[in-house]
Amino acid sequence: MSDSIDLKFRPQSYFWARERGISLISDIKGANRRRIYEHTLNDDEAGDLSPAFARHALSEEDRRLLGRMHPSFLGGEYLPNTGNEEVEIARITIASTTRDVTCVYARQVGKRIAYRIVDEYNGDTVTGVASRTSTTPLTLSALLDFFLNGWDLLGCLDFNFSDYQYPREEVHDFIVDASSSFYGQFGEAITARVDAWLDEKHANDPPKPLDEEGIDEDALNNPRPLDLMNLPFDPAEAAAKASLRRRGGT
Fold it and tell me: What confidence score (pLDDT) does residue 27 get?
């Protein structure tokens, strides 16, 4: 895990926006609706959109209409609705045909916070412990452990890419979105977890073959930056010798 990711980060509250009547982008269940609405907000064009784009949930008729446009528009639309005083604190969207979304919801229950992992299949894809509680919001590390132990993202990636030798770029592209309104580094942390898993998968890979001229094409196409601190010669001495040669010295 990258040192730049603060795994000990803990938000002060999940419920400040709900308590103040403030809508968050994470209130929108639909993955594509959320993406479109977010883009229009960034372009100051949200007023041009139908109010349906900002709704938490759509009617069955509206979902059917979206599905006719493209199956990916169904992503997130079949998640359970958040309950009373419940909020979505993290989500992962994968590049399945219907852009399946899995989330963690949180709600206040007395002096504790109750969490549940939800999917779009009545929990059928949630294979581990799907609920827990805490007295304070979770650290980023605890959220990752709860989410990924309850819903097996790495197992999903293994199922989809084991026959293709786990191509790193394609594996990462399969995760369309990993986001949270409360943990700014959630997406980075998911990327780091997947990278660590891929490193293990490729640990015993044979060396990449050279071409007919003995050139590592991958290294040629993806050169590493020059390490000026570990050159196989003294740059100052080499420059002095070159200067002497230009002046006719030895």
Answer: 94
